[in-house]
Batch of 4 targets.
Target 1
Amino acid sequence: MDAAFTAEQDEIRRTLRELLTKRSGPDEVKAAVRTAAGYDRELWAQLSEQLGLPGLALPDAYGGVGCGLAELAVACEETGRALLPSPLLATAGLAAPLITALGTPAQRDELLPRIANGALTCALAVPGGSLAPALALSGDNASGEWAGGGRAGGVQAKPGDAGTWLLYGEAGQVLDGHSAGLLLVAAHTGGFARSRTLLFLVRGDAAGLSRTRQTALDETRPQARIELRDCAAPRLGAGAGGGGLFYTTYASRRNTCCRLSGV
């Protein structure tokens, strides 16, 4: 097996490094993390439009570049090298693969093109400190206990009207959760005895959603506390998917990207 980088991967690294050398120096990073979004929106738009950064690993059918995990990992490594505050990891590394794998055709058609062009940023909301277990980076996640719920707190979901669900609870330490336009919220359904974990799509302006930016040791990785009070949200996907069992497969595809990015 040839483990060397391809010419295309080297070009992604070179181009990104040159741009970030000009646009993401120490002063620029300090200014970006102190904005309301926690990153430079103008630079994010440039990275999206000129380099297709958030759509690197998305299929071209959805406006993505059509590359794979290796190219996304290279991009994450370079943005980490420059300490670039951006929604790249939360959006392209965590949320987009879930929408691609679990979303209905209508959900993919609506969301993925907006992610690919940088117009929509996302965050994966699981209870504080549970991201690594959720991604199976620190053990088996098939039980779904990483999502809290029941006696462990977290977020609960109950059926609402017109195919939506009502979410109630909270999750802390959500990467880019304060600014994301879309939250993928892991919630328990069915009560404590027979519960299962599903994922729900919560708009950033949804009624019943409260978001508070938390103080973080690393200001380039802003985190938020997400509180939901009977917040109406559709489920991601349909049928039997969306639970913890999927994450074992999901993690095997994303581990490299997450490790390079320091999750």
Target 2
Amino acid sequence: MDRKEVVLQFFRENWKFWLSVCLAVAFFITAVTVYMYKEEKRVTEPITVKYEDSTNSEKMKKALGVDTGTSREITRQIERIHDGDVRPVVTYTVEAPTVEAAATETAKAIEEGDARLPAPALEQTDRTVVTPNTDKQTVDVYKINLRNNHKIKAGLLSADGKTYLGAGYQAGRWEGMVYTRDGRQIDAGSITYTIKQW
């Protein structure tokens, strides 16, 4: 028997096993898709956070469901906004009896996609944080994108008069690259970490 006949005979004899494997994989993919859809919907709903908690990385970590590094980076950016280093993209007025009520109203309007809100407030992002600032009588809306920290890279490396084609992947601050001359074997590699971003 040739190789093709052996493979076909193997599948004929074990078709029940392979059918159950295919069904299990299909069930798993369906379950993961449903879970991701529900989790995405839950995560993208606006979260109302106290003004003083918006610069506390531990409280923001818990409220947003992100890791410690991401939480620190988010609170650092919010601190820059509080200090006046970053101007708001847009401002608008909401009538409400209290600032807290305005924050609740704003969060509800964002969740419902109310067309009366400015376009940046309705923009789809990974997280939306609404904070009432009682001192200034304002409601701040922070739109946070987390997904843009995964990147696929390509490049060239020249060493000792030879040119290498490179491919890599970056996740957050970590980046890995592999280089090849002929496309058959890896000739070099590198791993880097971004110490500071601005």
Target 3
Amino acid sequence: MNSIPTTALGLAESGLPVLPLRADKRPFGNCRACDDLACGGRPNMRTPGPCACPWPCHGWAAATTDPVAVASPQWAAAWRRARTIGYHPGGAGVTVVDLDNQAAVDWARTNLPPTSTVATTRGEHWIYRGAMRSVNGVRDGVDLKSTMSYARWLGPGTGTLVELPDVVRALAEKAPSAVRPKPRAVTVPALAGGGECRHRSPAYLERGIAMAEQRITDAPSAVHATVYRTFLAVLSAHGRCGCLTETHVGRLFSAAQAKGESPRHCTDAWTNARTALGM
């Protein structure tokens, strides 16, 4: 018998925002319309694309502490098929330092204050009280999971939960400088019949790309959503006339990664925006 739904219900009642995960640790689309990505969304993203579900049903945004939601028929099928439980660390007011190998664990033991620790299949989760922005790859084998992210529930762990230290917060600030994204080749559909770009002036496109970069750079929060909306706006204005180049798209990806987005998240946001526009 699958005990995961029962465990998830108990965790939600205790105040932990939970969501069902597949065997490969990816979230489900938690409603029938989005099951197996039928809606065209990406379950790891906050913004799923052309999804019009009554409840948030993708990734960390679907995590809930509402026992009624966890036990509802709407999510029942996903919970029955789940192979593990995920949770939203930021929603629980904590930050998970995900140490993915022994070298990363050794580094943490030397450089980070002891806190509540949970063993994983390849390393450890060090959990601190306090939320912050999530950033992957702050060091080799080290990810920070908190707001707008999810982690696997692997048990209560051992040790005493301590306050999020400045040394962990500093890792997030240092991370963007280590990112050197390369422009990503993207095929942009041309107008039917090979029509001329309606903008005519290269300055119009340049101003649009510069404004898009600035919008992403200035985002104080909700970076995932800002990146998606910005990509959507750029594609809506320039995506069908063939004027976007690999360099333009690379600039947008670089701005997003400088805010902590991973290359995979950038790719997902770009794909979701194209899907939403029917490209």
Target 4
Amino acid sequence: MKKGLHPESYRPVVFKDMSNGDMFLSQSTINAKETIEFEGETYPLVKLEISSTSHPFYTGKSKLVDTAGRVDKFMSRYGNRKK
């Protein structure tokens, strides 16, 4: 590999999907405040709201993930209007 290509902080990081608990290991430069033990090693932890294991496009399932109540707010404003 070419020297000096990647930043100094390029390291293995565990990403955790908070909607279903799946975790995967990848390389990243992201700053992480937490650590986790994964496959016998300790890695920095980055929490994700959604990943390819829970996203409807990749899973083929229509699953509504609404963490901020945006759908309820929309439905209360515009939900039952018909022309």
